Amino acid sequence: MKPNELIEAAIQAAGNAHAPYSGYHVGAALLCVDGTVFTGCNVENASYGLTNCAERTAIFSAVAAGHKEFKAMAIAATKEPTPFPCGACRQVMAEFCGPDLPVYVAQAEGFEATTLGELLPKCFDLKA
Fold this sequence. Notes:
The chain is an alpha+beta fold. 29% of the residues lie in helices and 23% in strands.
């Protein structure tokens, strides 16, 4: 799957976001090694600590369905700023994806390609 196709899936997922407090709708699309794509959106809560980000929603959905090997992730938002993953999402990504995971972050014009290792160097890892 091409990065643009994965980004399009993330854009579609952002349309399902529940973001009545921030108005910031984010979607993520996670590509499994078998070609399956899981999407997620941010789900806000009046108790902000209970909010779940799009990236974690996608990963948790994939894991709940029995998938644990991933090939790439795309993240998109319906408005600025650019939706780089928060620290909590980066750590969850590190748990399941590894530092070489390509991460495509949609921008107003195109996307930025990076890796999880670039986003979260020296992550906490009990497996190391």
